[in-house]
Amino acid sequence: MARNFKTLEVWKLGYDLTLRFYKLTENFPDHELNNFISQIRRASSSIPLNIAEGCSRHTKNSFLQFLRYAYGSCRELEVLLMLSKDLKYINIKDYEEMNEEVDKLGRKLYVFIEKVTKEKWFSYFK
User: What is the dihedral sign for C-alpha 36, 42, 45, 46?
Assistant: First the structure.
C-alpha cells in the first residue's frame, strides 16, 4: 500500500522549491530553454517526484534509494544555482535566498534519510 507522501515535510519543501525554480527560470535567456532551464527544472522537480515514487515502494531499501536520488538532485541544484549567478542569469539576492532554501532542504533530506535508515520507515506517515 502506498504511503501518503504529501504528509512529509521534505516533500512539501521540495514541491514548493520546484514552483519557485520554475518562476525563477522564466526570466532566463530564451537560448537556454532546451539546456540550462530544462536542467534546473528537471533537477528541482526530481526532488518531490522521487520522494513520491519512493513512498509507493514496498521496502525500506527501495524507499531509501529514491530519497537518495532526491538528495542528489538537491545537491545538483546547488551547482546549477552557482552557475546561474556566475552567468548573471540571477542576482546575488535571488542566489542567496534560493541557495539557503536548497541547503535547508538538503539538510532535512539528509537527516530524514538517516532516521529512516535507523528506524521503521512507515512510522513517518500519518
Answer: negative
Cα separation, 6 vs 12, in Å, equals 7
Alpha helices in the chain (DSSP H): 9-24, 38-55, 60-86, 92-118
- Of 29, 25, 51, nearest to 40 by C-alpha is 25
C-alpha cell of 107? 539538510
**pLDDT tens-digit profile of 64-91?**
999 999 999 999 999 999 999 999 999 9
2 within 8 A of 53, measured Cβ to Cβ: no
Whether this prediction's pTM lies above 0.85 is answered by yes
Output DSSP code: residue 125. Answer: -
Q: Domains of the chain (ranges plus CATH)?
A: 5-120 (1.20.1440.60)
